[in-house]
Amino acid sequence: SQTIHQWPATLVQPVGSPLSLECTVEGTSNPNLYWYRQAAGRGLQLLFYSVGIGQISSEVPQNLSASRPQDRQFILSSKKLLLSDSGFYLCAWSGDTEAFFGQGTRLTVV
Amino acid sequence: GDSVTQMEGPVTLSEEAFLTINCTYTATGYPSLFWYVQYPGEGLQLLLKATKADDKGSNKGFEATYRKETTSFHLEKGSVQVSDSAVYFCALSDQTEKLVFGKGMKLTVNP
Fold first, then answer.
1. Fewest beta carbons within 10 Å, which of A14, B33, B74, B109?
2. Do B98 and A46 touch (CB under 8 A)?
3. Rounded distance, CA B98 to CA B100, Å?
C-alpha cells in the first residue's frame, strides 16, 4: 500500500536559521508531489509541486524552495527563515484521481 | 489560473441538522473535483470525489454532484453527527495534475 512519511512533526526554529523538511513516499513510482502550507484563516496554500525528478513548479514566490533529488523524495528548504514562515506544512502525493497527505509539520519561527 | 472558492466558516450546527457547504471552481478544461476532510488532530483525507460532469460522489452520508453548468460541487449531508466536526476542503485537480484547494471550512456539531 502507498504511504507517505513527513518529518519532523513539530519544529521550532529561530529567525534567520535554515530549514529542511523532508517527505518520502512508498508504494508508488513517479508520483506527483506537493508541498502545501496551512495558515490560520488562509486555508491550504499550494507552495510547490513536482511531476518528476528535478522538476519543480513554484506557485507562490517567497522565502522557500523545493527540491526533488529522487523519485519519491521531496524536500522543502529555506536558507533564512522569517517569522512569517510559521505555519503547518503538508506534503502530499497524487495518483490518478486522489491525493494522499502526510501528517504535517508544525513550524514555529521565533 | 485555477481556483476554488468555498463557503467560509466557522459554522456551528446542532446534531441532526442539514449541512450544505458551497464550493465553486474556476478551471480550464474538465477538472476532477474533491472534498477532503481534516478531523481534529489528524491529517487530511479524501471524503469523496467526482471526475466528470453530473457525477455524484458519496461517502459517510455526504454527497456532492459535479455541476459543470454552474461550476459547482456543493457538499451536503442530511443529518450531521458530532463526529462530523472537522475542517472541510473543496479541491480540484486540473489537467496538469496540479491540486488546488479552497480555504477550508471548520464545522462544529453540538449534541
1. A14
2. yes
3. 6
∠ at Cα A68 (A84, B43), nearest 5°?
Answer: 55
Asked whether the predicted pLDDT for residue A46 surpasses 60, the reply is: yes
What pLDDT, on the 0 to 100 scale, is given for residue A28?
82
Looking at residue A102, its pLDDT comes to: 86
CA distances from B69 to A82, B25, B49 (A): 43, 11, 18
Q: How many residues does chain A have?
A: 110
Q: Out of B49, B93, B104, name the one closest to residue A44 (CB).
A: B104
Phi, psi (deg, nearest 5) at residue A85: -80, -10
Q: Write out residues in chain B with pLDDT < 70, as ranges.
A: 41, 95-97
The amino acid occupying position A56 is I
- Residues A48, A34: Cα–Cα separation, whole Å: 6
Of B82, B107, B75, B100, which is closest to residue B9 (Cα–Cα)?
B107
**Residue A61 reports pLDDT greater than 70:** no
Closest to A44 measured CA to CA, from A108, A91, A77:
A91
**Under an 8 A CB cutoff, do A104 and B89 touch?**
no
Q: Cell 475542517 maps to which residue? A: B87
Strands (DSSP E) contained in chain A are 3-7, 10-13, 19-26, 32-39, 43-52, 55-58, 65-70, 73-78, 87-94, 99-101, 105-109
Q: DSSP characters for B78-107?
A: SS--GGG-EEEEEEEE-TT--EEE---EEE
